[in-house]
Amino acid sequence: MDESEGRPVGRRGFIRDAAVGAAAFAAPGKLMGSQDESHRHSHEHGHDHGHDHDHEHQDVPPDIALRVRALESVLVEKGMVDSAALDEIVDTYENRIGPRNGAEVVARAWVDSAYRERLLADGTAAIGELGHLGGQGEHMKVVANTPEVHNLVVCTLCSCYPWPTLGLPPVWYKSAPFRARAVIEPRAVLSEFGLDVPEDVEVRVWDSTAEIRYLVLPERPAGTEDMTEEELVGIVTRDSMIGVARVETPSGGEPGGDA
């Protein structure tokens, strides 16, 4: 589901998104606000850097829709892509995976301290215990938010993303502005998402690559002590597992640190 539009992605939309991401990487646009120059970034891990939430700041060819249709036709004609198989892939990540898999991992870590330890020590193995591994999620590292540290995940090079745990990546995650600014000014980026991180809390930015994907283990909100694991799954959001939001209690109260 394209969550910015509220409707299914579809085969053509799936290919379109891939093409847009490639175009943005090949010709990254201007950053937001007063930034007038494109930026290139090294893959530094765990540094205090920042992002932007606008979905419209990618410079892509105006005829991208035509290119997508042409690409799809050529791939199908040459037998490199089966339309039915592509539909199956889209449906799998859109409807059968999605962020719920990641939410199950988080909820289990909240209620099972031994699982939490295994998850932070070896994310791949612990996530595999719940059956949530697969393509684009073969090598996972989980980083935990605490009262002293807030983690943010980005892919500065392209849009590497843990599909088996979070489903399809949101549009903003693939945008050039987010990829550029998340490592430069993370606090400003988080603020634009509505998340203000206190100055005494360290912000660590984790740069996903083709070799490793990151998943944020959010803090468990206060007031959820009596909730079941299944109920906890229902309050964990995709954005909280990327690090651009906190998990709120069902009543909208303030999150706590009972992670």
What can you tell me about this protein's structure?
The chain has 12 helices and 4 strands, in the order ααααααββααααββαα. By secondary structure, the protein is mainly alpha-helical. It has a domain of 165 residues: Nitrile Hydratase, Chain A. Helix 4 crosses helix 5. The N terminus is likely disordered.
Helical percentage: 40-55%
What's the CATH H-level superfamily name of the domain at 36-55 and 98-242?
A: Nitrile hydratase alpha /Thiocyanate hydrolase gamma
* CATH class (first level) name of the domain at 36-55 and 98-242: Alpha Beta
Please indicate the percent range of residues in DSSP E strands (runs of 2 or more).
5-15%
* Shape by Cα distribution: globular
CATH topology of the domain at 36-55 and 98-242: Nitrile Hydratase, Chain A
Distance between the termini: 29 Å
Helix/strand/pairing category: mainly alpha
Low-confidence stretches: 1-9, 22-61
